[in-house]
Amino acid sequence: MADSDKQTVTRLLLDWRQGDENALNDLLPQVYEELRRLARRNMRGERKNHTLETTALVHEAYVRLIEADVAWQDRVHFFAVAAGMMRRILIDHARAARRVKRGGGADKVGLDEALAIADAPDKDVIDLDEALKALAEKDPRKSRILELHYFGGLSYEEIAEAVSVSPATVHRELRFSKAWLHQQLTSQ
Questions:
Q1: How many whole angstroms separate alpha carbon 112 and alpha carbon 171?
Q2: Is the Cβ–Cβ distance between 83 and 152 less than 8 Å?
Q3: Over the range 47-78, which residues count as b (16 or more CB within 10 Å of their CB) and which as e?
């Protein structure tokens, strides 16, 4: 995204925060492709036959973003919040699928049909969420940096701006967080 586009998004967010409804209408075309990129990045780790598609993830996240009561600071802040929203949407979706697989008031089906439905588990995204929550309890900043990196696809500079640290600190904390996360996910 060019610097002028970044400034336009920030200006539209600030105008919208101040009550300009036209700014909201102008915002979507400015952020849509970046939101799709974020959604594709988030969906990359999901199973191939996932019932939630990239476009649906973008639209659900955008609806939640415009309904959220957030004091938008700038473009980086917007996409950081969007990354978190997409993560929560995927986790909610995985938990709902888990409930359905365990009965959830649904009709009983035969074994062959059940095996076809349960083709690939959503366990990975739930395990990742639980590991990130555990890291957040120990070190909220490291958890946030990891979330912005994996779910937000933000650059080190953008992450540094979002959490008010230097890019070198982002690099150092990401190295630690990735190692910690790997240890958590492989020990389960």
A1: 48
A2: yes
A3: eeebebebeebbebbbebbeeeeeebbbbbbb
* Domain region containing 19: 3-186
Whole-angstrom distance, CA of residue 162 vs CA of residue 20: 25
Query: pLDDT, tens digit, for every residue of 111-123?
Result: 343 333 334 344 5
Q: State whether the Cα torsion 49-54-55-57 is positive or negative.
A: positive
Task: State how far the alpha carbon of 90 is from the alpha carbons of 62, 81, 109, 129, 179, in Å.
Answer: 14, 14, 26, 10, 23
Cα 48 from Cα 40, distance rounded (Å): 12
pTM of the complete model: 0.61
CA-CA distance, 141 to 136, in Å (whole number)?
Answer: 7
Total domains in the chain come to 1
- Tens of pLDDT, residues 12-70: 999 988 888 899 889 989 899 989 988 888 777 666 656 678 888 888 888 888 888 88
